[in-house]
From TrEMBL:
It comes from Neobacillus bataviensis LMG 21833. Keywords: Membrane, Transmembrane, Transmembrane helix. This is Transporter. The chain crosses the membrane at residues 33-56, 77-100, 112-132, 139-160, 180-204, 216-241, 261-285, 297-320, 326-343. It comes from the Bacteria.
């Protein structure tokens, strides 16, 4: 149970990057559809549970230290190669987005030069990657309970201070910019690009365990926690939509409404989530090329981190627009491949039982 919870917590910590914890992604893919956004949150939860369970078990079954083995297993020789190249590129891209995002957060909350903020995050990421994989999983998992406590406090505050009717909130929510044409597509897109980003490390985490049931339950716990965070953040923003309408970082705004000190705690949580995502992505990117036990791994981590810092100077907004939009399409293809692999395995197991 403990190992499953660690895997689940690390899965959440990996995916809950800048946009998720700030509320901006939840606003676009769920809250902008009003009350139906809640149903979208439940649908997304079901997908996260199923995909988390399947990917973590595949990692345990194949005992892989890189996503490469599972991706080729899912897609075959040719499609697997395309998946591998794209996922590897996006691992680097998402980590770079986190570096740029941390610079923006340091500037907004603490009035620190964004380049200095990015340097702090790059240094923290490199130092963490010099640890072994189990320590990395534990570190990433530790931040998740902290974020959930803060989000829950914001939710309670939002519900008890709601000063508009549900009908008014629903109408105002639907005026917000949306990331999809309807609530169902919004939920699918959200799961799609997050799985494209998180699949690699979830596979690697599953590969650290020999018991496929423990690994699978880790994916289930992670999916449930992700879903709970989606629904909680969505409801908190929905009932206070008159306060967060048009705000770049909605959860940060709600935290500041409670008290400036809570705003600082939320900013720390945001930075923690960016740190988690950067560490997870860069680790999965580096182990794709070099095994962690090799002497060249640590120098490669340092070089990769410095290259990532250089790429982050392009800017947070530009990077988000380029990297995340393309990831959604990759995610759909990956989800289809996962479902097919799961169906084939289930069919083989039924045939074996019948025999």
């Amino acid at each position: 149970m403990k190992k499953s919870l660690q895997i689940g917590g690390a899965f959440v910590g990996l995916i809950v990057g800048a946009g998720f914890a700030s509320g901006q992604e939840i606003m676009q893919y769920f809250t902008s559809f009003g009350i139906w956004g809640t149903v979208g949150g439940v649908v997304a939860t079901a997908f996260f549970v199923f995909l988390g369970y399947t990917l973590a078990q595949l990692g345990a079954d194949l005992q892989t230290t890189s996503h490469k083995g599972v991706i080729y297993y899912l897609g075959g020789r040719y499609i697997g190669f395309i998946f591998d190249v794209l996922i590897t590129f996006f691992l680097f891209g998402v980590a770079v987005v986190m570096f740029a995002g941390s610079g923006s957060t340091f500037e907004q909350m603490f009035d620190i030069n964004p380049m200095i903020g990015s340097i702090i995050m790059v240094a923290a990421t490199i130092l963490t990657l010099l640890l072994n994989v189990k320590n990395i999983i534990n570190l990433i998992a530790m931040v998740t309970p902290y974020l959930m406590i803060i989000i829950f406090a914001i939710l309670i505050y939002s519900i008890f201070t709601m000063d508009i009717s549900f009908a008014e909130a629903d109408a105002l929510a639907k005026e917000q910019a949306s990331g999809a044409s309807n609530w169902f597509i919004g939920a699918l897109l959200y799961v799609s690009y997050n799985i494209a980003a998180g699949a690699a490390l979830l596979i690697v985490m599953g590969g650290t365990l020999k018991d496929r049931k423990v690994a699978g339950m880790g994916g289930v716990f992670g999916g449930i926690m992700l879903g709970a965070l989606i629904v909680l953040i969505h409801i908190a923003m929905f009932v206070k939509i008159n306060v967060v309408s048009g705000v770049a970082m909605p959860t940060l705004e709600l935290a500041n409404q409670i008290h400036p000190a809570v705003g600082v705690l939320m900013a720390i949580a945001l930075l923690g989530m960016m740190y988690n995502t950067a560490v997870g992505m860069f680790y999965a990117f580096t182990v794709r090329f070099i095994q962690p036990e090799r002497k060249s791994f640590k120098p490669a981590v340092i070089v990769t981190g410095l290259l990532g810092f250089g790429a982050s100077l392009v800017g947070f907004t530009t990077l988000v627009g380029k990297v995340y939009s393309t990831m959604g399409y990759l995610g759909f293809a990956l989800i289809i491949a996962i479902v097919i692999a799961w169906a084939r395995k289930d069919k083989r197991q039924k045939s074996a039982i019948a025999a």
